[in-house]
Amino acid sequence: MIHANDVVVNKPIIDEIKTVLVPLCIPENMGFDMCIDEKMIGEDFYTIICNRQTGKLAFMANTTKSEDLLSASYPIKEQLQQVMIINRDLASSYRKFCNLAMPTAQQTGDKFHVIKLLMDACQSIRKKQKSKILTDKRKAHNEFKDQEKHRKIKCKELNDKFVRRKFNYNEEILSNSETVSEALSRGRYMLYKYPDQWSNKQELRAFALFEKFPDIEKAYNLSIQFRDWYSKKNIGKSKLYIERELHQWYEDIELSGVSELMNFSSTVERNEECILNYFYQNGATNAMAENRNGKIKKFINSNQGIRDRDFFFFRLKKYFA
After folding, report:
1. Does the pLDDT of residue 54 top 90, yes or no?
2. Contact 103/81 with Cβ under 8 angstroms?
3. pTM higher than 0.90
4. What is residue 29's DSSP assignment?
């Protein structure tokens, strides 16, 4: 067993020596089915490799760069080459590391990260519309201030008493009796749900928002279409059917003209192979790594931070490795 701080990678960078801390490196915890993810501990990002079968941590390094990870993981080089399945997010650095360190492993894109990118794209459309309303309100307020300033000068010239007026912005009221900005703010969680999960208020809000902003409706419907495709019900179906449905979704995205969804579609297309492996690996996900990240976060909170880092990693190894 290799203990914390025993593995230090010195990498020359021009006139400097770069040190990568490897607090955990336990070869016996490696297996054929692994997952890799990043975790922020303190102010640093760490790469964690976890065994999906046992749930135990096998490797942790204070870097997310592929070159540094290759050097730092040298003690488990043989074990990495025996990995058959590796679950990862869509980060290019992890793709490069997996290609070099685990050349025979089938890489599966993590469903959680893919869906999160999709939801972020939908939410960005809502936020863009809300920002536009706030910008219009700010401009109206600036115009009002200029008018008041000129009115004050005019009153002074005419020797009249100046009475300050109150700014009033008449915002449009939607069919559900909410202002546009209120509906946009309160519609955040509605976009995460399927239509049959909406409450009565959310259903009315959705109708009002979609009527006002067709782009939000297009994005929502296309996100539901993608989530239906990216579901367990399609596991086991033919490769031809799965790929045909995905390519049809690509075409629907192009026809929609929604730039935020087009950006997400481009990300999916670039990582299509590892995303499709979700269906061919019986729905394999990075849930184990995400679960471990959550437990590590609770562990940090319960210990009131990581003031003594060496002792923290010692306890982390005892609990999770």
Report:
1. no
2. yes
3. no
4. G
